[in-house]
Design a protein that fits this description.
About 30% of the residues lie in helices and about 20% in strands. The chain is of the alpha/beta class.
């Protein structure tokens, strides 16, 4: 499990691990939610423009159908997939498949996001990566949304989100609350 805020290198780390598995001549398959079309409809692409081919899916159940005879399964942006992903990953792992999952651990409000908390609980290894707070340079805690939109799922980049540490996030959200009064 690779988790953290936006701009922390989650996808970059997933791509690195998947490319290593390919180099080791293992059979790999990478999946991403079909709603994530920010950089590419099919490839998993990091903010640094590193990429690897993937299979877009609409639900976690599709992974079991498409991952037969595979040694390593990678899943990017897992927070956008359904809660059934936890069971899918468990089934794959119990069948000897190495599963590498990357996703946001929290949404823009600092609330645990989708299946990520359950995946962290069952993972053999959890890597939490951190972006740098754009305000003070400390380790980022959350992906702060810069525009007014209450949807939990909203695809975006640096125009819509910024990584903030806990203290800067607190200041930013208090300032936004004061504007709304």
């Amino acid at each position: 499990m690779i988790c953290g805020s936006m701009f922390s290198g989650k996808t970059e780390e997933l791509i690195r691990r998947m490319k290593r598995a390919k180099f080791a001549k293992q059979k790999v398959e990478i999946f991403k939610p079909s709603i994530d079309t920010r950089y590419s409809d099919e490839d998993v692409v990091s903010h640094d423009q590193n990429s690897i081919h993937s299979t877009p899916i609409d639900s976690s159940g599709n992974i079991l159908l498409l991952a037969s005879d595979i040694d390593v399964v990678g899943i990017d942006e897992a927070q956008f997939l359904d809660e059934g992903l936890t069971e899918v990953c468990n089934k794959l792992a119990y069948n000897g498949v190495r599963v590498i999952v990357a996703g946001l651990d929290m949404d823009y409000k600092g609330v645990p996001f989708g299946p990520i908390p359950a995946l962290c609980a069952i993972a053999d290894e959890v890597t939490k990566v951190h972006a740098i707070c754009v305000k003070c340079g400390a380790l980022a805690y959350v992906s702060h949304r810069l525009i007014a939109d209450n949807r939990r799922v909203m695809l975006g980049e640096q125009q819509e989100y910024e990584p903030l540490c806990r203290e800067c996030y607190k200041k930013a959200t208090q300032g936004e609350a004061n504007k709304n009064v």
